[in-house]
Amino acid sequence: MxxxxxxxxxxxxxxxxxxxxxxxxxxxAAGEYLGVIGPNGGGKSTLLKAILGLVPISSxxxxxxxxxxxxxxxxxxxxxxxxxxxxxxxITLMEVxxxxxxxxxxxxxxxxxxxxREIASRLIERVGIGHLANRRISDLSGGExxxxxxxxxxxxxxxxxxxDEPTASVDAASxxxxxxxLAELNRHMTIILVTHDLMAVSSQVRSLACMNRSLVYxxxxxxxxxxxxxxxxxxxxxIAHGLPHRVLRHHGEEKxxxxxxx
Length: 262
What we know:
Elements: E1 6-15, E2 18-28, E3 33-37, H1 44-52, E4 59-64, E5 76-79, H2 93-98, H3 114-126, H4 142-154, E6 160-164, H5 172-185, E7 190-194, H6 198-203, E8 207-212, E9 214-219, H7 225-232
């Protein structure tokens, strides 16, 4: 059996004296599409940052392997939360995507190569915003901005993509386009997606991790009532509006109307 692409063992992260992640153990196989859900403050974003090495680990282990023999570390793409980005900085969409081509050890007077620009241009077209390449980022809509961040992450040519709420604060059409793009990307790379969108979980991801500081559940993208109560601390009603996907399993006391809503 091959080693997992991401191996997390007994991971804990604290901000000062406040625990953000406690005792999480989780494996993510190459080619997986993992959804991570949970309440605000549940440690989801911190988990991604721990995988990336952006926050100090209090205890435990995060190991990322890949390449031939599982020894070399793969390139990682990262799409942060939209709220963490400065949208007023005077830079164009193309210039942002080009930053995904930066590598460690830059020298003075560095300039992007023609290959870098060709790759950035191709990725901008791929995510559907090629006509906006020279637009200032302050003029982009929420959906256009998120697509730009995905293009920047792809510019690193990643084998592993981490996304933190990529469809937050975007319109329904952009959400659908982003999820379609992620499904296509998952054919060639491993994806870990943090989201509050339970319907996306049921229709998109292959496996699910539920976090409330600790790991409450890891398995198929279908939840029991007990897991949801443990995750959110109270019963949760899911309104499905007739969609065929389910997140919550049927249980004995559920009542259904004619649309299939719970």
